[in-house]
């Protein structure tokens, strides 16, 4: 499990930096200020959760559990759905309805799983 989430953390971190640079240098002037802000929100959440996946990897070194696996899965799918939908909405003009909020809910579930894991490990 740790190896997969380490790869995903590296992938999402790398692509987050690349997309942030693309927004700052390639999209400025091509997108409205509002669309650029939405794109940057996707980058921001992607970067935060790439780092959160690193925490999952570090915790996995101490022992794996279903809660920890669920945390990593929720963070990973959250990045794809939340950030990915914001990128598609701004670049392709797609209206994705509930995809973005679903990604946000997955982030919340991931953080709740992490909190529950902490509660169980310290109790």
TrEMBL record:
Membrane topology reported for the UniProt record: Multi-pass membrane protein
Cellular localisation: Membrane
Top-level taxon in the UniProt lineage: Bacteria
Keyword Transmembrane annotated: yes
Transmembrane segments: 44-61, 68-90, 96-119
Keyword annotations of the record: Membrane, Transmembrane, Transmembrane helix
Coiled-coil boundaries: none
Main location: membrane
CC per GO annotation: plasma membrane
InterPro entries in alphabetical order: DUF423 (IPR006696)
PANTHER family: TRANSMEMBRANE PROTEIN 256 (PTHR43461)
Similarity field: Belongs to the UPF0382 family.
Protein name, as recorded: Membrane protein
Species whose genome carries this gene: Pseudomonas flexibilis
Lineage summary: Bacteria, Pseudomonadati, Pseudomonadota, Gammaproteobacteria, Pseudomonadales
């Amino acid at each position: 499990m740790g190896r997969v989430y380490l790869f995903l953390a590296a992938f999402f971190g790398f692509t987050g930096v690349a997309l942030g640079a693309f927004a700052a240098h390639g999209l400025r002037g091509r997108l409205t200020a509002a669309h650029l802000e939405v794109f940057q929100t996707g980058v921001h959440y992607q970067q935060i959760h790439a780092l959160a996946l690193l925490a999952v990897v570090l915790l996995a070194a101490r022992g794996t559990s279903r809660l920890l696996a669920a945390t990593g899965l929720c963070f990973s799918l959250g990045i794809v759905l939340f950030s990915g939908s914001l990128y598609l909405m701004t670049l392709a003009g797609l209206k994705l309805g509930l995809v973005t909020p679903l990604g946000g809910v997955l982030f919340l579930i991931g953080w709740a799983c992490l909190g529950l894991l902490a509660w169980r490990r310290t109790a």
